[in-house]
Amino acid sequence: MNSTNTTGTVHLGLPPLHLFSFPPSQPLKTKLPLPPTAPTTSKLLRPISISPTIFDLSLDLQYPLTFAVIYLSVVLLLNRINASRGYKPWGFTKTSTFRALVVLHNALLGLYSAWTFYGICYTVKSCWPHDGPDYYTQLAETMCGTDSKVARVLSPANMNTIWDEGAAYIGWIFYISKFYEILDTMIILASGKKSSVLQTYHHAGVILCGWASMRYESPGYLVGIVLNSGIHALMYSYFTFQSLGFKIPMIVKRSLTSLQIAQFLTGFVWACSYLCVKYTVPFDFAALQTTDLHSLMDTNLAAMRSPVSCLKDSGEAFPILFTCAYLLPLILLFVRFFLASYTKQKRP
């Protein structure tokens, strides 16, 4: 009998069927995310304490769903009003106060997005495993796990997953920021313009995607946070300079739209990969010398060496499936917008 350690392996495979069961598995209790706890974490990454009451209310589906319905209703109503007015800007939009508020809005979202991107990258770096025989399985568990209590690979000295270390904290604030971002639509409507299907669908859908990811503590939420915050840091910086009156070359706007499309395509593939990732748990035969190995092999050993799924239940899979379903129409809408805005031939 071999008495050496077996190292874990990571590979892709077909998603297990139990990940697609509906209704999705409910977490026992969604954890209140705490600020990042790494000793070197600066106060910049933990600016506020999250109220348990607000946290619980934000994860009650009736509130984000009601908000999304009201948002859609208001947009439809104001689109009709703007159309009846000949799409003329509202009077208050010509004031210096309104223009200053637009600049402040864009600048704040640009800075916030940069903070989010920095914070999530810092958190990932702080949890990244060191080289070793179990490097890849530790990496898989770090990226896949949202509950250190059920960790199979991470050592007692490094039991924190990315979720525990700060991704849940940053992710909840990221989710709440999506409620504020609907001011983008309100600014467009106040300017007398029509809020497009792309604009309206994007803002309503991302709120529900954020809710699902936080409610079910899905590790795939990391994908959206990294990609969206990075692109938004660039996008809102562009909007800030634009609202200040700077003339920005068309190639910049076209490049930002291309990056947004690339973001959604990358996010779709990356998120779906969570459904397919499996890893085996390293197993120490030497520690079982005093046990009945033959009996163990007949019962638990085979199960312990079987690959485990990155996602432990359908609850963790549901936000990924929901977000991917949301992304497909969004990608098509963005591609249509790109073609209409940047490839339309000028008429003679």
> Any idea what the radius of gyration is?
24 Å
What do the pLDDT scores average to?
84
Q: Structural class, please?
A: mainly alpha
Write down the overall geometry.
elongated
| Total domain count | 1
Instruction: Give the DSSP E fraction (strand runs of 2 or more residues).
Output: under 5%
Question: Would you list the SSEs in sequence order as H and E?
Answer: EEHHHHHHHHHEEHEH
Based on DSSP secondary structure assignment, what is the total number of beta strands? 5
> Span between N and C termini?
82 Å
Ranges with pLDDT <50 over ≥5 residues? 1-5, 285-291, 296-303
* Spatial strand arrangement across the major sheet: 2-3-5
**Major sheet characteristics:** 3 strands, antiparallel
How many H/I helices?
A: 11
Percent of residues in helical segments?
A: 55-70%
Family: Belongs to the ELO family.
Keywords: Fatty acid biosynthesis, Fatty acid metabolism, Lipid biosynthesis, Lipid metabolism, Membrane, Transferase, Transmembrane, Transmembrane helix
GO biological process, one term: sphingolipid biosynthetic process
Organism: Penicillium salamii
Written account of the structure:
Helices cover 60% and strands 3% of the residues. The protein has eleven helices and five strands, in the order ββαααααααααββαβα. The chain has helices at residues 52-58, 62-84, 96-127, 135-144, 162-180, 183-190, 197-215, 221-243, 250-276, 293-305, 314-342, and strands at 5-6, 10-12, 277-279, 283-284, 308-309. α2 (62-84) runs antiparallel to α7, α5 (162-180) runs antiparallel to α7 (197-215) and α8 runs antiparallel to α9. It is elongated, with a radius of gyration of 24 Å. This is Elongation of fatty acids protein. One of its GO terms (biological process) is sphingolipid biosynthetic process. It catalyses: an acyl-CoA + malonyl-CoA + H(+) = a 3-oxoacyl-CoA + CO2 + CoA.
